[in-house]
């Protein structure tokens, strides 16, 4: 019984550490050409990319993936602005948690939280500025969607299928479209590449 009490106490301590750990990390991004990008830098790069062709069809996508190692868990959150059929600009944020997170629900929940954190930074004012870029060209086919990509899927053999409803609801609560496998390319492909 004493071990059970100690275990619960340790679990609470680890939860508090995780909350503090993720909340206190700097919000900096990088890509193949730039490092130490602030969120403001990222936002201005997105605006600049969209202004190059305001008549484009744009997808602003955010997603997180992670990889558990023996002594740590690496989380990568990617931001991609895609001009459909005509290129993209992307960057990512890397967080290294100093313990392996083996509980699948907990790991997926943290991935979703990190995606939510970045999505939340695109407040209504910033989203409206992006919409204003394409708005004069909507009748000529211009568009903008915002998507939260989750590294989960409904497939029968997918261990994450039981978490789909919960995580999708969390993303949609931010007013953005939730995408799961096989349509969640930012989490399952772009971010995944940098977790290894």
From TrEMBL:
Lineage: superkingdom: Bacteria
Any one Pfam family match given in the protein's UniProt record, by short name: RNaseH_like
InterPro entries cross-referenced by the UniProt entry: Phage_KVP40_Orf299
Protein name: Uncharacterized protein
Protein species of origin: Bacillus oleivorans
């Amino acid at each position: 019984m004493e071990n059970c009490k100690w275990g619960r106490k340790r679990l609470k301590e680890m939860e508090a550490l995780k909350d503090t750990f993720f909340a206190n990390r700097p919000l900096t991004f990088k890509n193949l050409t730039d490092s130490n990008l602030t969120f403001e830098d990222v936002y201005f790069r997105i605006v600049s990319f969209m202004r190059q062709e305001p008549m484009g069809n744009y997808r602003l996508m955010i997603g997180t993936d992670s990889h558990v190692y023996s002594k740590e868990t690496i989380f990568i959150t990617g931001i991609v602005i895609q001009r459909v059929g005509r290129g993209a600009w992307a960057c990512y944020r890397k967080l290294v948690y100093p313990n392996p997170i083996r509980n699948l629900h907990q790991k997926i929940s943290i991935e979703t939280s990190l995606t939510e954190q970045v999505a939340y930074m695109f407040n209504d004012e910033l989203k409206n500025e992006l919409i204003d870029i394409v708005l004069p060209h909507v009748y000529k086919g211009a568009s903008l969607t915002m998507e939260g990509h989750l590294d989960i899927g409904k497939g029968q053999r997918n261990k994450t299928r039981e978490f789909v409803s919960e995580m999708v609801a969390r993303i949609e609560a931010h007013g953005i479209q939730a995408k799961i496998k096989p349509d969640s390319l930012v989490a399952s492909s772009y971010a995944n590449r940098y977790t290894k």
